[in-house]
């Protein structure tokens, strides 16, 4: 039996991943900054002059370098309100991480990290961790026995959404609101 060369596996996994990243990058560049909804905790950005055009983005080759973002001042929650970004999510976050909140009656927080790791904190404070595979992750409770599957996708409105199988959000599809990091919206 002949063994499949490892470069075939790299191409098979890498090409769809690169296509997905390019799709998100081009989608973000096609929506003007004024049309994007502002984050509730972010200060208002001054409008750029109308004559200024966005920089050209190459379609092939390495992505342009990201501008380093100034660290945001920690949000001060109202007295008695839960912390907007739980420590379990924030401890692994870096400049490439995206942190989102679930838009629903029972809000949750999800952190997406550059290495494909996903962390989830439910409204009860339960902490889950998983690894993304094709925009789907099997989440397991840290130090517990609960588990569920979450699939991340893009909704009809162009925003991120999460579809759950199992757990407290079983068979629900909920919108994700960006708190920190990039977004398709």
CATH class of the domain at 83-185: Mainly Beta
Sheet/helix structural class: alpha+beta
CATH architecture of the domain at 83-185: Beta Barrel
Q: Quick one: overall form?
A: globular
How confident overall, as mean pLDDT?
A: 74
Keywords, please?
2 helices; globular; alpha+beta; 185 residues; Porin; 8 strands
Write structural notes for this entry.
It is globular and about 50 Å long. The chain has a domain of 103 residues: Beta Barrel (Porin), CATH 2.40.160. A hairpin with a 2-residue loop joins strand 4 and strand 5. With 185 residues, the protein is an alpha+beta fold. 15% of the residues are buried. The termini are far apart. The protein has an 8-stranded antiparallel β-barrel with strand order 1-2-3-4-5-6-7-8. The protein contains 2 helices and 8 strands, in the order ααββββββββ.
Summarize the structure.
The protein is α+β, with helices and mostly antiparallel strands. The protein contains 2 helices and 8 strands.
Write the layout of secondary structure elements.
Layout: H1 6-30, H2 87-90, E1 98-102, E2 109-112, E3 117-121, E4 127-133, E5 136-141, E6 147-154, E7 160-165, E8 173-180
Antiparallel strand pairs: 1-2, 1-8, 2-3, 3-4, 4-5, 5-6, 6-7, 7-8
């Amino acid at each position: 039996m002949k063994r499949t060369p490892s470069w075939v596996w790299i191409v098979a996994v890498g090409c769809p991943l690169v296509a997905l990243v390019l799709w998100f990058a081009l989608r973000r560049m096609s929506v003007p900054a004024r049309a994007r909804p502002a984050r509730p905790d972010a200060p208002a950005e001054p409008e750029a002059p109308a004559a200024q055009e966005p920089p050209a983005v190459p379609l092939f080759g390495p992505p342009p370098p990201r501008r380093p973002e100034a660290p945001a001042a920690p949000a001060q929650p109202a007295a008695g309100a839960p912390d907007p970004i739980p420590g379990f999510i924030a401890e692994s976050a870096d400049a490439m991480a995206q942190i989102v909140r679930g838009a629903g009656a029972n809000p949750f927080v999800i952190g997406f990290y550059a290495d494909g790791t996903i962390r989830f904190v439910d409204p009860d404070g339960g902490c889950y961790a998983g690894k993304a595979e094709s925009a789907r992750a099997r989440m397991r409770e840290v130090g517990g026995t609960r588990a569920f599957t979450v699939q991340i996708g893009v909704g009809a409105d162009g925003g991120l959404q999460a579809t759950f199988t199992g757990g407290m959000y079983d068979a629900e599809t909920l919108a994700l609101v960006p708190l920190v990091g990039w977004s398709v919206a």
